[in-house]
Give the backbone structure.
Amino acid sequence: MTEESTAAQGPITDGFHLLIDALKLNGLNTIYNVPGIPITDLGRYAQGEGIRVLSFRHEQNAGNAAAIAGYLTKKPGICMTVSAPGFLNGLTALAHATTNCWPMILISGSSEREVVDLMQGDYEEMDQLAIAKPLCKAAFRILHAEDIGIGVARAIRAAVSGRPGGVYLDIPGSLLGQVMDAAEGEKSLVKVIDPAPAQIPAPDAVARAIEVLISARKPLIILGKGAAYAQADDLVRELVEKSGIPYLPMSMAKGLLPDTHVQSASAARSMVLKESDVVLMVGARLNWLLSHGKSKQWGEPHSKKFIQIDIEPREMDSNIEIAAPLVGDIGSVASALIDAMGDDWQKAPEEWTSAVRTKVVGNVERMASRLQNNSNPMDYNAALGALKNIIKDRPDAILVNEGANTLDFARSIIDIYKPRKRLDVGTWGVMGIGMGSAIAAAVETGKPVLAVEGDSAFGFSGMEVETICRYNLPICVVVFNNNGIYRGDGVNRSGGEDPATTSFVEGARYDLMMQAFGGVGITANTPDELTRAVAEAMDSGKPTLVNTVIDPKAGKESGNIGSLNPTSIVADARAAAKAQV
Ligand code: ADP
Ligand code: MG
């Protein structure tokens, strides 16, 4: 077609603009990306068309930002990358989103199909669609400009309907330059109607669950991040309060009801897991984080009955028998249960609830005294005691948390007061989500963010402090610096000069990293110094990094999950023999 005949036919559009228009039409107004061939111009034009495009330093961090944006907003978080290596970097985050049941779309540019498929050695050649497929909920490729509208619609529906997850969208570079008639193009776009339809539970399933609940003498509710994702906060609260049942929040469900709620059994976790007779799971899976519903932790052998609310039917009986499956979305199921409970519902037996409460109060008191210690250098309790108060005074702030000991201690010490205010390592327990999560939390909510990071965990995404400064985001990063992974006092068993495998540079100045890009950087050695620095950062909104000196001897191997490490009989025997010499 000559330019003339194009002009004669009226205005045209192209792949770039159709993709941008399709995203905007569906309210997807933020892109987390790393520019490069072939998507550099796509980012530029998207920014020009009013989409907020945030450029990161590494795709995994952009992907982690998109994943948590999906969790916070119930809309797919959009990550955009270049081909092969950039795509693979983003893929880790897409798999992470899928594992956590969060909606996300990874859009990656790809090389020439004809050359890739004949394996003729194109620039960044890779069959990205095939590689993405097993690692996400769905994967699509768009080859023609007129299919962009449908392709984006399919991606959105796949990401957010039913159990949410990650979707891969393959965009060959040549698609972006394809042209078509502008009016035809506009007609080809699809605005997705009711992308995540309500899923109402069957009435007999509700009746069955109520029967099991009535039979309980020691009932327990477990709230998971699926319940937080659902944004049915009032209904979840009503269900818990009307039932009078003690509840345990999983880590990202903390704050669905305030951690200080009288029914919270967090501080009596061992007791309620062991002693309960009926357990109502609300958007939580019986995976490794709950010892698969069995084990000593649950008081095995046990004859507990489980009721489970989940949008995914195949989740039922995944680990143990579910006596009363409730398949549906949290909001619809909670409201059906509340209705079925009627006006004269008998609350959970007083004998049980008061025993749980007594245990909680005792444990909370014991913990409180430990948090006020003045050890020098600080241990985890002292430093987190200070940060606990920061969040107590600022319940709207969002806490991002990763590390090993830093994660375990912070999860139990820092109370959360509102839904979706705690973002952490999720189902995989993955390190590296820190700066991506912090950036997306600030961008999506506009609230101040406190990122509490182990020094090791921080290292995975630390370069994004430049991104934080560049966009001037209200993020305060607290690095718990104990000179190493787990602990900072590791030894090289060969006696050689190399540092131990788990050691970092001693006395590193992480605060200077933030200063390098114009942010505020401070070192804190005491709880008072830490409080002052963090309070000022949270209130000013200035990008800040507080290098927080923690005793290298505090903390333990792998935090609370050291038992997952395999042990070597050989190494143990050799160490014992050496000790005897
Ligand atoms: P946690 O790690 O907090 O225990 P999980 O990620 O293991 O939580 O479980 C979350 C569960 O919530 C998943 O099984 C998922 O299918 C389910 N889920 C997600 N969104 C909804 C929803 N809107 N309604 C019901 N269940 C949901
Ligand atoms: Mg450390």
